[in-house]
Amino acid sequence: xxxxTEPIASDxxxxxxxxxxxxxxxxxxxxxxxxxxxxxxxxxxFVIYGTASALVFGDLFFPxxxxxxxxxxxxxxxxxxxxxxxLGGLFFSRxxxxxxxxxxxxxxxxxxxxxxxxxxxxxxxxxVGLLAPALLVLCRFFQGFGAGAxxxxxxxxxxxxxAIGRRGRLASLVMTGAALGTVLGALxxxxxxxxxxxxxxxxxxxxxxASSLVVTVVAVLIRRRLSESPVFQELKKQHEKxxxxxAEVFQxxxxxxxxxxxxxxxxxxxxxxxxxxxxxxxxxxxxxxxxFVPKVLMIGATCGGIAAIGFGILSDRVGxxxxxxxxxxxxxxxxxxxxxxxxxxxxxxxxxxxILGFVLAGQGAVGVQMSYFPELFGSRYRxxxxxxxxxxxxxxxxxxxxxxxxxxxxxxxxxxVPVAAYMTLxxxxxxxxxxxxxxxxxxxxxxxxxxxxxxxxxxxxxxS
Length: 464
Prior knowledge:
Strand content: under 5%
Radius of gyration: 22 Å
Oligomer: single chain
Number of helices: 21
Number of strands: 0
């Protein structure tokens, strides 16, 4: 890991103590709602796609493959969206640090919603052949491209808007929004599965994707009244906006960016394993009723959304680093017991296992990230730094996790042990990275230097 973090020249004075300059309460409420609904839409899109990959896309877009190969193909198309996320992050983060957080958050929202709606209009393999999966992958690409700067933008905006001592609480609402999106996505599939099998495969799945248009319209209406963050407004007054935020991240902010990448890669892998892979595992391997899967995901997400706020508040009181490391340590040990519980086939054991996965990996740890990661960066390229670190780790973690897990399950004749080992290994990487990260609670967000920059020595007193 690169430890050379060259300080920005204009930040030569010793760091000033953090000052409590909260935004107007109305601006804080708008920011909270904007972050919540935007992430809700992002997660809604991903949940309905991930569930469709496990339940219907194999028959609709890959009908000539064996069930195992069709599932792998569906998850491969799912991974394409994650591959597009860092590209979207590279593109949009440049404007997030130059034009403002609000502009990017409105644009990404629109792109995600339109892409998801378009999936519901696609022809199937039986109608146009190979063109159908090609169009599915294309829509998935643009869906991921728009999502590339969404969570990072919401986290940056809320962290910069909140008062000192309440950043963890306010920024964690981003993940409460993610939980809300999961609940809404699960509800959409619960309703769709009340249809007959013929109706579901003919048009019911299309209604699920078309419903994203409703969530998009609501989110856009809320974000139209969004105020820019006080930190960005101050940078704008002082003409400190960088011409190339991405270049500055690679020049000055490599260390915090790499810390974010490795601190998130294990969380991302476990989070999307619980949210996506577990659905197919429960149906294809354990043999539970497919109608049970959206219900248990909805329960897990609800508990996870509550946990995100709880962990955010706790990080405001005792610090980001100890809370985050405690969650990671628990997740190192969790995969084995999770699969043991799932394979019992007991609805109660499965529900408890999924709840723990959502509470810790799905929303809890990421809820702490929402304030922790923005506080690691200096003010000039904060949006770009958080976005690049999180989105590249999302590709290496969450984007390929369902595909790797499905491949391991197939290669080892249905054994869950390699999958659990993979989940544990990825989490150990994040735990090691977290041990190298500094504490950032209540850090002054107007500073240009990163939190990882070495402290400047105090000037020696003259003896003359």
